[in-house]
Amino acid sequence: MSAHELILAVAAGAVSLAICSVLWALAQRRRAETRVGELSRRLRQIEIRADAAMASAEAFDSALLAVEDGQASLASGEESLAACATALGLDESAPQALVNALMRADPDHARGLRALFERGEACAFEVQGPGGAVSVEGRAAGALAWLRLSAILGEAPGLPTAPRFAAFLNARACPAWIAAADGSPVWVNAAWLQAVDAASLDEAALRGASFDRGADALASEAANLGQRRQGVRWITAGGRRRAFQVVAQPLDGGGVGVWTEDATELEELREVIKRNVEAHDETLNHIAEAVAVFSQAKRLIFHNTAFAELWGLEPAWLAELPSHSEVLDRLRQRRRLPETADYGKWKAAELDRYEQLAASPDDLWSLPDGRTLKVVRQPHPMGGLLLLFSDITGELRLKAQYNALIQVQQATLDKLSDAVAVFGSDGRLRLHNEAFARFWHITPQQLETAGDFEGVVELCVPKLHDLGFWREVKGRVADPDPSARAPMSGEAKTSDSRIVAYQSRPLPDGATLIAFTDVTDARKLESALAAREAALAEAERLKRDFVGNVSYELRTPLTTIIGYSELLERSGEALSERGRSHAGAVKAAATQLARSIDDVLDMAQIDADEMALDLADVRVADLLLAVAARWRAEAQSLKIALVVERPEDVGVIRGDTRRLAQILDHLVENALGQTPQDGTVTIAARRALGEIQLQVSDTGRGIPFHVQAHIFDRFVGRERGGPGLGLALVKSLTELHGGWVALESEPGAGATFTCHLPEEAQATAAQPELGFAQ
């Protein structure tokens, strides 16, 4: 390259460099201008914001202090600073003097300010001075500590600041919060956070936790309506179900303040009261008395079933809760109230009872349908009036009957000759008759004055001195032990020589009846009767001895007479026909006398209960044949037919063979004596209806009706010969076997005697049992 070209190149490069330098300078200037503009704008914004901060501080009457290294300086609010100094009673309004005064006011405040200055911990408190209060809020920003001071002067120096009020709410044991219009919390206290188990509101919002959705809805409703809303909400808190009274109140400036109170005990108590009221109402529905409760507004708030039934009122109408006046009007329309001349006055008097504080006296209503009601009125504990209606118609009727019964009882006792007194379990004299006063020679007035058992005893002791007797009677009257009130009886002797029989009887109602009877004459009569009985017994013994001795003395010669009579009858040609006839007559008479003596002895034994039966099995058919064989010869001599009817199935009877034969002998002898020639005497036996019947019948002249009633008495029929004991002995021997005798007869148509001997019956006089077999 030539030098000229080189120079040109250098010149071109220099020109290019110059141009670039110019362009770069222009660019730098343009950027500098832009930067300056931006800084100017920022400076203007800062100035605007500073002016706004200053204006806002001035607008809210607050002084803002900046503290750095313990030195305070005023940032804004000179007038507010002066007001704070005045409130604290300072002569000067220097920032540092104000801070020193705050630290001297309270040790707690001093500690809070030092923590703010040294560690940047926020604080808030109020300081009370002689001229008012100063609200202090402290925050740290960078290396500076800022204090916001507000003087509280004038009419409400005690009103807390927002931080102080927030601290107050935060100390509550129950949740409280401020909610937005949609019900979501925007500020909550510590109890709310504890209930939802969250460290902060942001954490709770992040988790979607809520104290109670129903409470949030209540806050939203209060915000939308602009009205206070409240209700009870049951939630689970602290591991148990609890009730909270929630109150949502719209706040000035927006938002809703929500306040809760733990109402668990109150709600549980309310539930208990509700159950008690329901149980009380249910109990009233089961009682017979009609019950109605009217409120303070005089409207029916409760009635039981008996009330509707008593008055015949429709349940649907009663469910409308009519007033007391309406109820009375309806009852009057249906003529179910007492008749009165002035219903309006009567009704007004009934309604005026709501104004009375004390319970009204019980009243009786006589209804037109004849019923009588007892009306009880008393103020209701919850206000209003409680009415109780009892239908006492039956009670009055029973009371009248009871009074009549008491009067009849008293009249009956007064008619008794025995002295009767009734003492209650408390020892009071309840009842006595007129004979009681006469018995003890005291007056009715003295008995009324005595009153109780001790008083009556004092009146009776002069006649009956035995105090031990009266103590025993008192034990029967007043001892509460049932075993001690057992009946007692006995006799005692009075001071006037009377013999008194006494007895006590416990009555069902706990009372005791004491009765006294004068048995003096009865005891004298008993003594006389006992002596007479002893004399009669001695006479009876003498009679038995006499009969026995006479019978013994007569049997021996009779045996001799009968023996010699039989010997004479058998003497043959040595004795004439007439002599033999006389001997036979002597024998017959002696035999008849022997049988009569036997009958008398048998009757004496039976009367003395000394006859014993020799029981054995007796074939009834053989018994009949034996009896017929003994009497056949005599029947033939009298030209009377003797017939025996003996069924094969009559069987065996257990009895005394000798006595059964004796019964039939007496009946056959009686039949032969009453039957004319060519007549018939029938001996029969049959089994019928659990018994054996031994029967003797004849075709004789019969027995007159007036004689039949006494035919079995002793000494009847003596005109036929003998002592007249035959049929009486038949009756006694049959009864001794446990049977009985029947007679069927008509005059001129014969007679039938039937001995009924029962099967499996016990013989009388403690004899062994009779039994029959085939």
Write structural notes for this entry.
With 774 residues, the chain is an alpha+beta fold. 48% of the residues lie in helices and 23% in strands. The chain has 24 helices and 28 strands. Strands 2-1-5-4-3 form a five-stranded antiparallel sheet. Helix 22 (657-674) runs antiparallel to helix 24 (726-736). Mean pLDDT is 82; it is low at 718-723 and 765-774.
Short synopsis of the structure:
The chain is an alpha+beta fold. The protein is about 50% helix and about 25% strand.
List the main descriptive attributes of the protein structure presented here.
single chain; 774 residues; alpha+beta; five-stranded antiparallel sheet; 28 strands; 48% helix; elongated; disordered C terminus
Weakly predicted, low-confidence segments? 718-723, 765-774
Query: How confident overall, as mean pLDDT?
Result: 82
Distance between the termini: 189 Å
Give the structural class.
Answer: alpha+beta
Q: What is the helix content?
A: 40-55%
What is the strand tally? 28
Roughly how many Å is the radius of gyration? 67 Å
What overall geometry do the principal axes of the alpha carbons give? elongated
Strand adjacency order, main sheet = 2-1-5-4-3
Please report which band the strand proportion falls in: under 5%, 5-15%, 15-25%, 25-35%, 35-45% or over 45%: 15-25%
What's the helix count? 24
Largest sheet: 5 strands, antiparallel
